[in-house]
Amino acid sequence: MINPDTTYHVMGLTRYVDDRDFPARGLHCVVFFSPLAKGKIRDLDTSAARNVPGVAFILTAKDIPGENQIGGIIQDEVLLAEDKVNFVGMPVAAVYAWTEEAARQAVGRIKIDIAEEIPILDPREAYNRNELIAPVRTFTLGDAEEAIASAAYVVKGQAESGAQEHFYLEGQVTVATPSEEGNLHLSSGTQAPTSVQRCVAKVCGLAMNRVEVDVRRLGGAFGGKEVQANTWACFAALGAQKAGVPCRMVLRRSDDMSATGKRHPYSSDFTLALDGQGKFLAFKVMYYQNAGAAADLSTSVLERTLFHATASYYVPNVHATAAACRTNITPNTAFRGFGGPQAMFVFEAAIREASRISGICAETLQRKNLIKTGDCFAYGMKAENAQAQRCWDRAYAHYDLQKRMRAIDDAQKKETCSGQVARYGRGYALMPVCFGISFTTIFLNQARAHVHVYTDGSVGVSTGAVEMGQGVNHKIRELVADSLGIAPGRVKLESTNTTRVSNTSPTAASSGSDLNGAAARMACEMIKERLFKFKADEYQCASKDFSIRQGRLYREGNACEVCWADLVNQAYCSRVQLSAEAHYATPDLYFDKSVEKGRPFAYHTYGTAYFEAEVDRLLGTYSIKKAYVVHDLGRSINPLIDLGQVEGGMVQGIGWLTMEEMRYDETGRPLTATAGTYKIPDISFASLDMKVQFLEDVYNDKAVKGSKAVGEPPFMYGIGAFFAIKMAAGYEKPFYFAPITPERLFGELREGLVV
Amino acid sequence: MKKRCGFILNNKEMELSLLQGRSVLDLLRKDLGLYGTKEGCREGECGACTVILGRTPLVTYRSMPACLMPAGQLNNTHLVTIKGLQGERPNRLQQAFINQGATQCGFCTPGFILSLTGYLLEGRTVTVQGAIDALGGNLCRCTGYGAIRRAVEETVEPLLGKVPSLQGLIELDLLPDYFATIPQRLENLRRKPQSDSPDVTLERVEKNCPLIAGGTDLYVQRGDALNKSDPRFLIPEAEPIRVEEGMIEILASATMEQLRQDPHFIDQFPGWREKLLVIASHILRHRATLGGNLVNASPIADCAVLLLALDAQIQLVSSKDSRRRFPLRAFFLGYKELDLKCDELVEFLLVTKRDEAQLWNYAKVSKRERLDIAGCNSAAVFTVNKGAFASVGLALGGVAPIPFTARRTMKWLRGKPLSKQTFLGSMEVLQEEISPIDDVRGSAEYKRRLASALMADHYLHCFSDICSYDDFVKGGAL
Ligand SMILES: Cc1cc2nc3c(=O)[nH]c(=O)nc-3n(C[C@@H](O)[C@@H](O)[C@H](O)COP(=O)(O)OP(=O)(O)OC[C@H]3O[C@@H](n4cnc5c(N)ncnc54)[C@H](O)[C@@H]3O)c2cc1C
Ligand code: FES
Ligand code: FES
C-alpha cells in the first residue's frame, strides 16, 4: 500500500507546526545571537530594543527560572550566554513581541560590547591546546605497530572532510501553549520529544510531567533536530511560561543556518599496511573531530567513527584514536551517518593511496578485503550473516561493471599514449558500505507502543517514533495491519506525544521502525491473544486455533462468520481489554568501555555502489553520470519508501563531498550560512542515471519481519562519487580534501595535471 | 498607506486593502491562512513558496517565488497556489508524485507541483528536459530527485511535443475546471476599475519608497523593510523585446526568461536558450529583470556580462522625459557606482540585429552549475573575416569591481589571424587587464586563472577546428 500521508502532501493539505492560525494574543520570539566567536561580554544594552512598540519583554541568562543548561550527554552548554560567548550564532538574548516584525526590529536594536578573544577554529590546534570535550578514546585489535613493521606496503596520508548543513526544508520550530496550573504544551519540530521535554523542564524549573511535547511530523530533520531542537523549544516555553500566552518560535533560514550545529568536520591521519598481494594487515588512524563550542552529541558521533574505522573491510590489526576537539564554531551535532561517513571517507582515501603506491587497482584491494561472516571488527564483534561480498559481486554482474570500467580505463590509456590531454575525463569508483544498526548508547535501544482498538474496528497507534519524511509511520501502519490481519486503511498513526508514550529515544540511528515497529507488533499480539482467548472460550477450543486474515476470523483455516469489527465489538461487550502497551528492547547488546569491546550492534546493513563521473579539466567542474547500487535491506517492508531512502541518502552524501561547503572566515564567522551561498544538490545536478537493486534472498532475523534499517547507510555511497571525480580528473597527486568544490578541483588540477 | 487591490486568488475574486510592499508569501500565509504555500528561505533559493501568476492578455501563466514578490503587483492577475489546484482527489500530476514516492517529508512538494503545472501552462512545446529544467528553482532535501524525475516523466508523457492548451490540461486532469472561466473573469476585473492602480513612477529614489522591478534583489537585501512599505513598481510588458531599425530593443522590464526565450536572440546566437539556463532558476527568471540586473551592478551580474559582450547600448529616461543613450560599458563606473542620476530610469537596451548566426559563447563557473552566483563568468562574440578577427566582444564578471569589458584584449585581437598563437597571446593580454579579489565566491588567484580558462573555453567552443584543449595546456596558458 502507498503511504496515505503522501496524498495530503501533494495536495498541500499537510499541516506542519507553523501551519496554523496563531492567536493575536500570542508572542513571537526572535533571538539575538553573538556576532563574535569568542570573548567576554562587557555590556549588553537592550534598552532601545525594549522601546520598540509591540515588544513584551526580553530575556537574558539571569531571567531563566530554572537552570541555564541545555547540555545532554555532558552538561556544558548554556541556553543563553552568561558572561562569555563561544561561537558566532550563540544565543545571547531572546526578544518576545506581539508580532514577529516587532521582535525582529527589536533584535536589530540590541547592542553588545564584547572583549574579543582569538578563537580556535582548527581541531588540531584545539587538540594541541588540550581543548577536549572528553578524554581521547582508542580502539585496538591485534598489534598494529608490529604488523606495520613487517608489511610489504605502508602508506600514510591525511584526509579532511567538511561540515555539512542539514538544510531540512522546514526550519526549527516550536509553538508553546500554557495550560492551567502553569503546565506547558509544546508542539515541536523535534526528533526527540523526550529530550525537549527534559530540557524545557530543566530550563523552566518544572517537573517533567508538567511539560507535554507533541510532534505530528517534521519537514525533514536528518539529525539536525535531535538535540538542536531543544534550544528553540526552550525559547518558546520560556515565553509561554512567563506571559501565560502561546509563544511561537520559528527560525528563519539564515538564522537557522548560522546558529545551529552541522555535521562534524574531521581532520585525520592514517597509515595503512598491506602485504604483497594487497591484503590489509594493519590500519592506524587518528581522528581530530571539530566538535564546536559544546559537546552536544559529539562524543557519541565520535564513538561511531571509531566503530566504522575500517569501513566495510576486515583488518586484523587496528589502532584507531579519536579526539573530540573543542573549537569556536556552532556545537556540531547528529547528521545522517553520525560519524560513520567521516570514518569511511578516511579509510577509502587510504585505499586509494595504497592503490597508488602498490599499483594494485583499488577495486582489487576492496574486493579482497571485504568483511566476511566471522571476521572480527576492532570492537570485538564478529560479522554475522555478512552480505558485503554478495552485494559487491551482484553489482558487478547486474550492472556489467567489468566492461564499463574497462571502457574508461582504455580511454585513459589511449589518452596517455597519445600524449594529448583531453578536456573531459571520465572516472569511476566503487563504494561498499557496512553500517552497524543500533544506538551505540545501549540504553537508547528501547521503544514503547500503545495500540487502541476502537469498537468499530479502527485502530489508533502511538509510538515513540517521529515521522520526518522517512515513512516510519506508514511502515508501522503496515506492520500493525499485518499483525492484526486487517487492511492498513483501518490503522491510524497518532502524533508522537510524551503523555502517551513517555521516555522515548530519539528517532535516529536508522532505528525508528526497527524499535517502534517491533513494540507495536508486540502490542498487537497481546490484543490478538485476548481476542482469541475470548473466542476460544466461546467455541470451547484453543486460542491457537484462531487467526485473522483480511479482516476475518479464521478457525483452523476456515473462515468464521465474524468479521473484524464484529469481533472487537463482541469482545468489548464481554469486557475484553482492547488496548495494549508494549515495550521492546533490542536483545543481546552490550559494550564494555573499559576495554572498548562488545556487541554494540544488532546487525549490519550492507551494500555496494558504483559511480561514474565526468570532469571538465579546463574549468574544474564535474558531473556525476551514473550511480548503480545493490543494497541489502533484508526483506523490505515497503520498497517504495526504501528506494526513496536509498536515493535521497545517496544524493545527500554526494552533496556533502562535492558542492556543500561551510566556510568560516579567520574570525570564525560563517561565510556560507545562507541559502544563497551554501549549495545543496538541485535536480539538474542530481539528473544522473541512478539505479537501485535490492539484494535478494536475505532475511534478517535481528529485526522486525526480516527487514533492515535503511535511513543512514545509503548516505555513505556518496563517498564513491568523490573518488570517481578524482579519477576523472586524471591527476596523480593525492589530495583527500572534501568537499571537492569546483574551486578546489580547479586548484588541484593546476598543481598536478598528468601529461 | 494601504491600497485596494483586486485579483483572483485561485477560484475566488478578492478585493483587499493592503500594503503594496507586503510579500505575497506573508499575504498568503499570515494574512489569508493559506498554509499550503511554504516558507523555506525567503531568498528565492528553495522554491517552497512557488505560486503561479496569470496575467492578461491571453492569460500568460508563469511560476514564481512568492517570497520575493510584492502584493501590490497582484492587481488584475490570477494568483494560483496549491489550493487552487485542489479537487476532491489528487490530479494526474499529484497522483504521479504519490505513485512514484516523489514526496517524503512533503515540505517541498507543493512548490514542485506548482512549478511543473506552471511549466505546462506556459504555452511552449513540452519536453522532458524542459519539464526538469522548470524545476531548477525547487530544492528537495529528502528524495534525491530520482522519484521526482520519474513522476515528471509519467505526467508529461501524453503531452510530449505538444503545446498544451488550457482546455487540454483540464481534460487531462492537470487543472481544475474553473481555469476555463479565468480569462473572462480577469477581463471583468480589468473593466471594473475597483482598485487603486499601483504607483508607477519615474522618480527612482524617494525616501522609504523604493522602485521595484522584479524585486528579486531588493527583497533579499531588505525584505523586512519592504514588507512594511508602499513602494512603486515598474510594470512588466507582455512583449518587451522587439526589432526596430536594425536593432533589437529590450525594455528594462524584460525578465531574464523573456530574454532567454526571445526568438531574435535565439536566431542570432546559436545555443542561446541552453546556455542561459545557468542563470538563476526557472521561477526566478520569471521575476528578475534586465534593468534590475544592471542597476544592481553586481560585478558578476550575468545579463550585464552578456550584454557587454554584445556591445549593447543603454538608454536612460529622466523624470523630465529627457533621454540619454550610450554604450553600456560606460554605464558601470566603479564598484556599485553607475552613470545613472536620481531621476533617471533605465528605459531599454539595444543590440545590433544581424541576419546571420554569430560565433559566440557564454560560460559561467560556480559551485553548483545552476542557481548559483558565479565565481567568474564570461561572454564573447566574434566576427571573422578572411581568417582574421574582424571584431571581438569580450566581457567577464568577477574579475574587476564592475562587470568588465576586456577592451585591451578586444583591441589586441582585432585584425589578428585565427591561430593558436593569437589565442594564447590574447590570454596574456587579458591577464594584464583584470584585477580579481578574494571573496566568498573564490580566491583572487582562482578567479585569475579561471578567466584564462573561460577564454580558452570561448576559443574551444567557437574554433574547435583550430585549437584543442591540449594546445592550451602545452602552451602554458592555463
Ligand atoms: C535566488 C537568486 C538567484 C539569483 N541568480 C542570479 C544569477 O544567476 N545571475 C545574476 O546575474 N543575478 C542573479 N540574481 C540576482 C538578481 O536578483 C538580479 O540579477 C536581478 O536581475 C534583479 O532584477 P529585479 O528586477 O528583480 O531587481 P529589483 O530587485 O526589482 O531591483 C534591483 C535594483 O534595481 C533598480 N531598478 C530595477 N529596474 C530599474 C530600472 N529600469 N531603472 C532603474 N533602476 C531600476 C531597483 O530600484 C533596485 O534598486 C539572483 C537573485 C536571487 C534572489
Ligand atoms: S521561501 Fe524559498 S524561494 Fe521563497
Ligand atoms: S520531500 Fe522533504 S524536502 Fe522534498
Per-chain topology:
The complex is a heterodimer of chains A (755) and B (478).
Chain A: H1 5-10, E1 27-33, E2 39-45, H2 47-50, E3 55-59, E4 84-85, E5 91-97, H3 100-107, E6 111-116, H4 123-128, E7 137-141, H5 144-149, E8 153-161, E9 173-178, E10 184-188, H6 193-204, E11 211-215, H7 229-243, E12 247-250, H8 253-259, E13 266-274, E14 280-292, H9 298-307, E15 317-326, H10 340-358, H11 362-369, H12 388-399, H13 401-418, E16 424-437, E17 446-453, E18 459-463, H14 472-484, E19 491-493, E20 496-497, H15 512-539, E21 546-549, E22 552-555, E23 558-563, H16 564-573, E24 579-585, E25 590-592, E26 597-599, E27 603-616, E28 621-631, H17 639-657, E29 689-694, H18 718-729, H19 742-752
Parallel strand pairs in A: 1-12, 10-11, 14-15, 18-19, 28-29
Antiparallel strand pairs in A: 1-5, 2-4, 2-6, 3-5, 7-15, 8-13, 9-10, 9-12, 11-20, 13-14, 16-27, 17-18, 17-24, 21-22, 22-23, 25-26, 27-28
Chain B: E1 3-9, E2 12-18, H1 24-31, E3 50-55, E4 60-65, E5 77-80, H2 92-100, H3 109-120, H4 128-133, H5 146-156, H6 166-171, H7 182-191, E6 211-212, H8 218-227, E7 232-233, E8 241-244, E9 247-251, H9 256-260, H10 263-268, H11 272-275, H12 282-285, H13 290-296, H14 302-309, E10 313-318, E11 323-327, E12 332-334, E13 337-338, E14 344-352, E15 359-365, E16 376-385, E17 388-397, E18 404-405, H15 407-413, H16 420-433, H17 444-462, H18 469-474
Parallel strand pairs in B: 1-5, 6-7
Antiparallel strand pairs in B: 1-2, 3-4, 3-5, 8-9, 9-14, 10-11, 10-14, 12-13, 15-16, 16-17, 17-18
The complex binds flavin-adenine dinucleotide and FE2/S2 (inorganic) cluster (2 copies).
